[in-house]
Amino acid sequence: MHAKHGVEAVRAVAAAAQARRRPRAGVRSVLAAVPSASPIVRWTGIGFLVVAALFPLFGSGFYTRLAIEAMLFGSIALSVDILLGYAGMLSLGQAAYFGFAAYLTAVLYTHVTSSFWLVALIVAASVGLLAFLLGAVAIRASGVYFALITFGVAEILLKIAHNTRALGGSDGIIGIPVPSVGVFGLFSIPLKHNLVFYYFVLAGIVLVYLGVRRILNTPFGRVLHAVRDNADRVPYLGYNPFWYKVCAYVLAAEVAAFGGLIYPLLRGFVSPELFGFEVSTKAVVMSLVGGIGTLVGPLIGGVIITFLEIVLGGITEHHLIVLGVIFVVFVMFLPDGFMGLARRLVAQRRGERS
Amino acid sequence: MADALAYLHFVVVPQVIDGLIIGVTLALVALGLTMIFGLLHVINLAHGELYMLGGYAALALIGWGSGYWGALVLVPLLVGLAGWGLEELGIRPLMPRPDRAIVTLLLTFGVSLMLRDAAQIVWGTQTYSIEAPLTGVVEFGGVFLPTYRLLVLGVGVGAIAVTWWLLYRTRLGAVLRATAADPAMVASLGIPVRWVYAFTFVFGCALAGLAGVLLSPIYAVFPTMGHDFLIMAFAVVIVGGMGSLFGAVLAALLLAQVHSIASLWIPPVWAQTLVFVVMLLVLIVRPAGLFARLGKA
Predict the structure, then answer these.
(1) For residue B108, what is the nearest residue in chain A, using CA coordinates?
(2) Chain A residue numbers touching B37 (CB-CB < 8 A)
(3) What is the arithmetic mean of pLDDT over A212-219?
(4) Which residues contact A13 (CB under 8 A, 6 or more apart)?
(5) What's the mean pLDDT in B88-100?
(6) Is A68 helix (H, G, I), strand (E, B) or coil?
(7) Which of A199, A275, B112, B278 lies deepest, with the highest CB count within 10 Å?
């Protein structure tokens, strides 16, 4: 009898401790990290990948290309998530890197080279440099300034693209040739074919995702998490938060640049709207809808929003108001997105079972 | 030499005065932003759309026969009311959240999208012009100025003066500044901080509405007017220092001059880019802007 009480007491203490570690049910935060390594994220990710792999077998060419677009916008959402979910920095201008990469890609293909890898290398290097310079200024200003500066910078890049005749002004650059991607000089992947292009982009986005997850699971990612949770205490542990944030910013920019590298090949043209704040906004909505801090969530959010827009486009031309409503509803009522919802549902069912 | 003087007199001076007028209205929008940030720690991304709402509200009221002067009085009240709705329904429920800086930013962003599209649904994408109530021209030493612009300048300066008086010469202002410094202490003295926040938010929105109605006869009314203006206002509050009233006014005048004078030699769109370059330079030297936050010494 006595012993049983003892065991129960220990259990109660353990349960209380666990409850304390979990975020309180009432206070949900956009940063209520469903850890990107948790089982629900893994299984959702795998399920999603299976659906994505089978999708073009059922969908028409139109939907295949739409799915490619969803993945490319998903990469911007993923880059928002790296910043917001892991470093606690809200960027309202990730389209800057998407657009910059897209324009650079377009210029390189039309004037310089047709080698995919050379273009990719130049784009990666230039985006890295640009992100480092702008990031250093924006991050030093820190906090709320960061969101505003990123917002402004994207807007200015848009204005520059819009008003530079050499870049086609408001029309942008058209007639971008679609290259074939050589693999170690053994064979080449013809991106002209819809299906080949689709699986190429899918493979690319999966690699980007795995790479990002790997990087964020290293000690670097841990420090970044610590910076997010308490940037004032991190220096006492001997880390300089500034450089960690800059690295995260450059990483995020490169991820958005992946989308920008592929997008001109999908559409055949680039236009100043790629820098636009609608693109940046959509990326934030996507990661909010999917679940911030989960890495998989933003990609799923990308698919949801892109397809939703097409469905809505048939009904109304007012996308913005719908995006706005989604924004408000998620912020107010579902700040941890679908991944958070899924986790709560699973936890609830487990609770019922036991 | 005479040519240079004439150039200065007839080209540069009018441009400077123009910049001054835009700077004053820009300061109204920036003041609202910076006050709301200083007290609530909320960045109101819907602020530009409230400015836009000011323009459309003026359009509607004048259409219903209120006349321009009626609109000038009523619009700030209406926009303030809209701001109150936003505060009550959107911002306040989010205030207890630990990540309120980010969630309120996201929320107001969503609201700004909704408002802009709603304006497009109601009024369409076309540009409306509002007739200025004063049409004459005033001459100052050879420089001609439309009377209406002088009115904008006068009302704008008046509104800034009222804001200053309210904050630094009244009991309410003392409460506001105290809340900016330490809300918990103010609450423990029995002052309903909730209503202080609501008042600040509504006041800031009313200022944006006032700027909207003042500028609409000069710039016309269209759905994205708030978006374009907000970006400038952000540059202003960043340069002035988030939460600093003095900084907002000074930076508004300064950046409007940069924009206005640069527009003489380079296309206006590049002038706007130049404003951002100035902003980035200021940030490199002083990452927190030029002046200290409200409530700090």
Answers:
(1) A328
(2) 144
(3) 89
(4) none
(5) 87
(6) helix
(7) A275
- Å between A177 CA and nearest CA of chain B: 31
Asked if B266 has any chain A CB less than 8 Å from its own CB, the reply is no
Six-digit token string for B187? 């609450």
Using one digit for the tens of pLDDT, what is the confidence trace for A299-309? 999 998 888 88
- DSSP H stretches of helix in B220-262: 225-240, 245-262
Distance from C-alpha of B120 to C-alpha of B55, rounded to nearest angstrom: 13
> Is the confidence at residue A21, as pLDDT, over 50?
no
Among all residues of chain A, which has the CA nearest to that of B286? Answer: A141
* pLDDT higher than 90, residue A173: no
Work out the angle at residue B46's Cα, subtended by the Cα atoms of residues A314 and B201, and round it to the nearest 5 degrees.
Answer: 145
Contact state of B106 with A284 under an 8 Å Cβ cutoff? yes
Question: Looking at chain B, which residue has its C-alpha nearest residue A90?
Answer: B102
Give the separation between CA A289 and CA A330, rounded to whole angstroms.
Answer: 7
Q: Is A268 helix (H, G, I), strand (E, B) or coil?
A: coil
Q: Which residue of B has its CA nearest to A327?
A: B110
Q: Is B244 exposed, middle or buried (0-12, 13-18, 19+ CB in 10 A)?
A: buried
Summarize the confidence of residues A131-138 as an average pLDDT.
90
How many whole angstroms separate alpha carbon B175 and alpha carbon B167? 9
Within 10 Å of residue B11's Cβ, how many Cβ atoms?
11
Distance between A262 CA and the closest CA of chain B, angstroms: 28
Query: Would you put residue A169 in left (φ > 0), alpha (ψ -120 to 50) or beta?
Result: left
> CB-based burial of residue B266 (10 Å sphere; 0-12 exposed, 13-18 middle, 19+ buried)?
exposed
Residues of chain B with Cβ-Cβ distance to A325 below 8 Å are: 110, 114
* Chain B residues whose beta carbon lies within 8 Å of the beta carbon of residue A281: 109, 113
First-residue to last-residue Cα distance in chain A: 23
Q: Is the dihedral of CA A335, A340, A342, A345 positive or negative?
A: negative
Please tell me the predicted confidence (pLDDT) of residue A8. Answer: 55
Specify the residue for token string 């205030």: B95
Residues of A in contact with B96 (CB under 8 A): 27
Question: What is the rounded CA–CA span in Å between residue B53 and residue B32?
Answer: 15
Q: Is B161 on the interface with A (CB under 8 A)?
A: no
- Chain A hits for B268, CB-CB cut-off 8 Å, are none
Q: What is the maximum alpha-carbon separation in chain B?
A: 67
Half-sphere exposure of B173 (CA within 13 A, CB side): 11
ipTM of this predicted complex?
Answer: 0.79
Read off the tokens for B182.
């330490």
How far apart CA A330 and CA A315 sit, in angstroms, is 22
Residues of A in CB contact (< 8 Å) with B are 27, 29-31, 84, 88, 90, 92, 137, 140-145, 147-149, 151-153, 155-156, 159-160, 162-163, 277, 281, 284, 288, 318-321, 323-328, 331-332, 335
